Amino acid sequence: MTTDSNKLQEEAVKILQDNWVQVDEGSGFTKPAADVYPYQWNWDSGFSAIGWRHIDIQRAMTEIETLFSGQWKNGFLPHVIFHIPSDNYFPNETFWQVQDTSDQAPEGMETSGMTQPPIHSISVWKVFETLEKTDSELALDWLELMYPKLLSLHTYLYRQRDQGNTGLITIYHPWESGMDNSPRWDTPLKNISIKEKALYERRDTGFVDARFRPSNANYDTYVYLAEKMREAGYDDEKLRQVHPFQVEDVFFSSVLHLANGYLLRIADTLNENTEEITTWQQRFRENINTRCQDRSNGLFYDRDLLSGKLLKENTIAAMSPLIGGDMNEEEVENLFDTLDEKLFCGEGSCRATLLPSTSLFSNKFTPDRYWRGPVWINTNWLMLDGLENAGADEYASGLRNNLINLLENHGIWEYYNPETLEGIGAEHFSWSAALAVDILTS
Ligand code: 9WN
Predict the structure, then answer these.
(1) 199 band by pLDDT with thresholds 50, 70 and 90
(2) For ligand 1, which residues put their CB under 6 angstroms from it?
(3) Which atom of ligand 1 is nearest to the CA of 371?
(4) How do strand 302-304 and strand 247-249 relate by DSSP bridges?
(5) Cβ distance 408 to 439 under 8 Å?
(6) Which ligand 1 atom is nearest residue 431's CA?
(7) How sure is the predictor about 348, in pLDDT bands with cuts at 50, 70 and 90?
(8) Which of 86, 130, 214, 399 could share a disulfide with 53, CB 3.0–4.6 Å?
């Protein structure tokens, strides 16, 4: 490692240690950032575990186990688990009221009532691989402990959220996508008329400059939609009939497809039956192109299930199949060529730079506002993983170097302005730290 890499590694480890919250003797988690995000978030924890495995394998295992202690009886994995009280964030457990609202909520646990991209089979497999090097028996025991929980999560998503049996997953709220205020949601959100505006106080803007966060108008709709989910008892059948936001999410579905590949490896290792997992993979492969791809430019889009229309916004999600991990090198090449044609980052520049959350050529592009332009480490890391799985080594190594350069030269932040590369949002952000450790160590 170079001196810069050593410095980055040290800083990243310190951030993870500082953000660790010990709940009780056997449980704990990494909060995403010190003040603004005090609880355990779903996909954040999956990423944190991927970093922890290189530093303290026990913590990596505890992180995932603690997250799954909030899993619902039907397999649903909430986007936030409230292990400890805090006044720093809205909405918290008093808003969600899951214990009074759903008979599927886990006994005695306070959680939210929506989910996030299901990256956890990836995390579990990677933690297993690291643990196996020092204690293969314990590693197998742990895989056995986690497998039914992961299977139950994937089964829930295909049973309850795959409305058309296409392998494409429906989300009921922009927060479920993990990319809250992305232009991807502008059109469906515009069609929602808020009947009665809730009285609430934002807490996030007390810690992060309001310029970088979603607007107040966006927030009103987020809160309204979350209230609607609560009113429907977080019940998928009911939501399907009445909910005003229902979108087939191409990125979420591709993450699940990537995760299926890892779940398959886990099942194989444990000599479990893999038939169902391969059926899910097949379903996705059969439908991703016909249902999501825009033939005119080769990009992939979400579909608004209420209008039936594709949501043609050029964001990082438009390249989601790259993270699915089963495109061959020629298909990867084609997608990158399409991007080069001034659709995304500008001619030629996609190979040399990192992918911003929204295309620099979109009229929605805003370099410093949350998911409307900034570069995020986790989405680029997922691309990297997908490209490596596809054997697209040239692209993968370019992306890997660019990630390391960004982190070494601009610090560990929640996101980065793609024009200036300045770090913005929350400082000392956990998943950026964890994935820095992973990239430096793997
Ligand atoms: C809402 C915690 C989370 C991430 C999301 C990111 C942001 C929350 C918020 O922070 O969302 O869940 O308050 O904006 O968009 O991806 O998991 O880091």
Answers:
(1) confident
(2) 32, 37, 41, 43-44, 79, 175, 178, 180, 204
(3) 15
(4) antiparallel
(5) no
(6) 18
(7) low
(8) 130
- Checking if the pLDDT of 256 tops 60, the result is yes
Cα-to-centroid distance, 414 and ligand 1 (Å)? 10
> Tell me, what amino acid is at 320?
S
Among 180, 200, 218, 371, say which to mutate for ligand 1: greatest number of ligand atoms within 8 Å of CB.
180
Closest Cα to atom 1 of ligand 1: 175
Can you tell me the distance from the alpha carbon of 52 to that of 54, in angstroms, rounded to the nearest whole number? 5
Question: Which of the following is catalytic: 162, 180, 236, 304?
Answer: 180
Q: Are 147 and 269 in contact (CB under 8 A)?
A: no
* Cβ-based neighbours of 17, under 8 Å, separated by 6 or more: none
Residue 160 and residue 163: Cα distance in Å, rounded?
7
Flag whether pLDDT at 209 surpasses 70: yes
> 343 near 335, Cβ under 8 Å?
no
Pocket test for ligand 1, best of 67, 175, 251, 413 (most atoms within 8 A of CB): 175
**Average of per-residue pLDDT across 283-291:** 95
User: Do 292 and 284 contact (CB within 8 A), yes or no?
Assistant: no
Residue 376 has pLDDT above 60, yes or no: yes
Q: Residue 314 carries which DSSP code?
A: -
Q: Where does the pLDDT of residue 327 fall: very low under 50, low under 70, confident under 90, or very high at 90 and above?
A: confident
For residues 360 and 346, the answer to whether their CB atoms sit within 8 Å is yes
Give distance in angstroms: CA of 388 to centre of ligand 1.
Answer: 27
* 276 belongs to the catalytic site: no
Shortest-distance atom of ligand 1 to CA 44: 17
The Å distance, Cα 178 to ligand 1 centre, comes to: 6
CA 194 to chain CA mean position, Å:
27
Q: Which region, left, alpha or beta, applies to residue 208 given φ > 0 means left and ψ of -120 to 50 means alpha?
A: beta
| Ligand 1 atom at shortest distance from the alpha carbon of 430 | 18
Q: Is the pLDDT of residue 352 over 60?
A: no
- 184-207 burial, b if ≥16 CB within 10 A, otherwise e? bbebbbeeeeeeeeeeeeebbbeb
Told to judge if 329 belongs to the known catalytic residues of this protein, a careful annotator would answer no
